[in-house]
Amino acid sequence: MASATDARYGQKESSDQNFDYMFKILIIGNSSVGKTSFLFRYADDSFTPAFVSTVGIDFKVKTIYRNDKRIKLQIWDTAGQERYRTITTAYYRGAMGFILMYDITNEESFNAVQDWSTQIKTYSWDNAQVLLVGNKCDMEDERVVSSERGRQLAEHLGFEFFEASAKDNINVKQTFERLVDIICEKMSESLDAADPAVTGAKPGPQLTDQPAPPHQDCAC
Amino acid sequence: MSQELNLNFLKGLEQEIVLDVLYRDQMLRKMEEERIRKLKMQLQELQWKGSKSTSQEYSEKLCARCQKSLGVLMNRGAVCNGCSHRVCPGCRIILNPYTWKCTVCYAQEDIKAKAGEWFFEERVKKFPAEGKHETAGTKLLESYQKLSNISVIPPTPPPFSESTSGVNTVEHDQRKGFHRSVENLFLSFTTHIKNISKSQNDMTVDKYLLTADYGQEMELRKERRSQSDTAIDIATRVKLAPSLQRLISGAQDGNGIAPERNCLQKVVSSSPLSSIFSAGIKRGSLYSLNSTCSEAGNFEEADVSGEIEFAIRYNFKSSMLEIFIKACKNLAYGEERKKKCNPYIKTYLLPDKSPQSKRKTSIKKNTVDPTFHETLKYKIEYSQLEMRQLQVSAWHSGTFRHRVFLGEVVISFESWNFEDKSTQLLSWYQLKAKAEQSEDNMINYSGELLVRAKLISPSLCNNSEYEDQMKENRKHLFPLAATEDKTYPGYQLHLIVLEAKNLPAIRPDGLLNSFVKSCLCILGRRDMKQRTPVLKKQAHPHWKHLFVFSGVTTSQLQQSCLDLTVWDQSTFGLRNQFLGGARLGTKVPTRTSDATSQADLQWQKVLSSPNSWTDITLTLHSNAHVFNF
Ligand SMILES: Nc1nc2c(ncn2[C@@H]2O[C@H](COP(=O)(O)OP(=O)(O)O)[C@@H](O)[C@H]2O)c(=O)[nH]1
Ligand SMILES: [Mg+2]
Ligand SMILES: [Zn+2]
Ligand SMILES: [Zn+2]
To answer: What separation in Å is there between the alpha carbon of A37 and the centre of ligand 1?
Structure first.
């Protein structure tokens, strides 16, 4: 059993040092909604129909190219079961963004979204970026949660929303990339706020002795 | 019940799996730390390169980043909003049509993003007690390692190899072995997590942690801080007579020193301070004089608070000690009632308290969180550094040259590792009030004297071949050598006066007509006195003159003292001006902690290992009355 999981973790990605930012992302949601499958689809482009319950916590690393920057993602996969809660919530604090997942064929998993959201509010930083994902959208026949309900709940919670399928590789990449983008936005917001050069001079041109045209070159 | 058993079994395996994850995470974290360390090093490099240097006289008219000169009317450059330095157009990074930043400010921001600092800064708002680099993973591993009784054999993460999952396949047997030992992992997880969430206060609440870095560097920082805690706060407040009086008495006595000893007035007149006053006054000196004066007596001391951020490095290529002063935060108000503060930073390379040891940054207006980005530099031999302390003090500059002391940090270089790049990184230091200090500790530093000494055993002295060779050598090496070398029985002490550095400047041009007197005082014998020729018009005299003291025994030397005094020959045939003196041997007059004991050791080496040369660097003191000459 151990080897089955082992094969899924490569060392290659993690030792790569050539990147600009490192973002930490956490995937949460009820057990068996497809968190692990979602991560494996994204990181390894693989899918197994067999269900192997995640133990406690786990992570994968993937480096992507986005907005002219190389971004290394450490994506944490968590176990959904209550008994692991103490461990998993300990990881909330280190995460910049979250993927909160439910299963569109599982009403209970959708009903739990509110609770998961509360967990984020409690254990994470104030600007946590969250994407709500309704997984298994390939199983249209067994759908019990309509897209509309998903969208409304997301809006209510202030999250962005995607329906996706780890199995058919629908919206997986898009979900992660969107999350990366909004973390990037948060990052520049945060940097600008702390920066006198920006906050001090927002509305108009700065008062410089000589408002030299920006493109003028000096010989240095 | 069977399910219970089954579950237990699974738990053991679970633990193993989770441990693997934790170690993988740890490895990733270490690599990340390394990456960030490199980034910071690069930024520091950029700051060193580009930062405005106060040693340049017209720094205002230079681009603070590339040092290219800026025009007075045209091409004046503009002030960067981030660091308030004037930079040329080429050193600006345009962020949007309305905003630009200088290259250093840009790089600084860039690193904040790249190192994820922005996130930690945000997170601190919600979890003020959270250490920056403490992650759930570190805590779990720590608690696990503490709680398990066996010494953990972590499934050592494979060196960053390309191979996949080396851990799990290779070390399977080993892992079986420690499988049992991890049974309690979850228990420990749970208890530990409970601890974390219940008592956040238990975690090291170190506010430096919040702004700063990680592991090793933290250790360094702590070490440094404790160093500065205990560092000898030398000669900061001159408790002697008010400065004005010193100046007047110095001026009256002019350029000379009476031979009487223990005469306070004479002593005072020989301090570098009064020397400057009595001799020609050049602009620079006058300026320094004023501020020295203010430091010596008439400054106020604020209720010290806040921190200062700076970095130190030694440039081996140019023999420069460079101090990059970045910023301060939460400074005390210079004028508490008016809530006014115009801070600047001043440094001295102790024990030298003379104006030539002083460096200052520019003055920032109306802020208790100033940003300086300035580099202060000292030209100094590397070997000299370990005897020095860097005193960094913050001051408020009020109206009418009214100065208020805002706090200081003293760093001893004795155990500073300049070769370790990580010591070059910026650190925050807590500002401290001035330590009270006794007059005894007052060091009137007036430069350094470099000598080379050798004791020649009688057998070698009588060896004519050797003697001839010595004479030859001397002719070549020391054309100015003293001729007195009659052979006496017993040992010969050879002492070459090599050079002096950092002598006090007593003329506007800084040049001296200097010579060195030596006086060997052996109990029950007449003092043996010699002197070097005068070296004219040199600030940095290299006498390379050999003194030979014949017919001495080691036991005599053990109980005697050899005083070396440096003088400036008066131009008008009046008294020679005492510049500084040092003593080898017993009865050391002014114990300057490390500097003297270092020379003492060297001297002991001379006496205990005859026939080999030993170089000694002596710190010169300005209190003439304690020396024989
Ligand atoms: N049809 C379908 N099945 C999925 C999808 N994602 C996951 N599954 C299956 O759902 C089960 C639970 O998935 P898993 O990723 O282990 O869920 P987790 O507990 O949230 O990590 C597995 O049997 C998967 O094969 C999906 O997008 N479509
Ligand atoms: Mg899972
Ligand atoms: Zn420039
Ligand atoms: Zn700047």
So the answer is: 5
